[in-house]
Amino acid sequence: MTPMPDKWDDYCFDLEGFLILENVVSPELIGEINEKVDEWLALSDAGEEWLGNVHVVKNESTSSHSVSFRNVIEGGSCFEALIDNPNWIEFVRRYVDNHGLHIWMNFLPIIHQGNHVRLHSGGHNKMYRTSFWYHDDRFYCGNLNIFLALNDIGPGDGGTLVVPGSHKSNLSNPLVHQKGQGRKNYVLEPGDMAPYLKEVHLKAGDAVLFTDALIHGASVRTNEGERRALIYRYSSFWTRDRFGYEYSDELVARLTPARRKIIRPIEPSKPPVVQYE
Ligand SMILES: [Fe+2]
User: Fold this and answer.
1) 176 CA distance to ligand 1 middle (Å)
2) pTM greater than 0.90
3) Which of 13, 53, 187, 204 lies deepest, with the highest CB count within 10 Å?
């Protein structure tokens, strides 16, 4: 049976801006994805930047993901299967503009020892992407992130950091957003922010769902090894891909109609092809 958000889920999501969804992907599928990532890492270590239609982006800075595989939906059936994963799709439909969905960004970030992601975002920012509205028993989030853990993420692993409730903040957080002074790094030195930060711990196959309006980041990975995650960002059907990637006709052709509707919600309109003798 497809899990549906209940009144308690709605209450917690409204209050805190995030929900943890346990066991949303089977160990078999997680294993399949990780095998693919092992293959891709070997290829990217050998200098490949494009793995078919999947794009490898490496980051020199330690204040972001170490490596990102972007446009991963093109990477195989294990990624296609999660477009409308029944264990989260009704939550997504409930919390995003429910006239139609679009995955406007999909990527698989890896964090190595020493890396973290700086805190960013917040409810003070009223642009569409960080919008969070509730009206007449409907939620309207401009962007809802599904962060799926591909390995266990516990203390020292570089877990997602959130500031519960910050999606409703009217004011820019002066400790996180310091205009003209450069960004202080409140992941490395939480200081006064420490009591407000929650580090999300997940088992492989669990996910955290959160509105992009929430202040979020990732704590420093102090443990050896790497943190692996898959992130699908859902928005309204009329948005465009974040980086301009266009799905291949082969992918679009083999998807179920329900999945196609989420990655290409608006079919291109073109004049008919005229055949000349
Ligand atoms: Fe973010």
Assistant:
1) 13
2) yes
3) 13
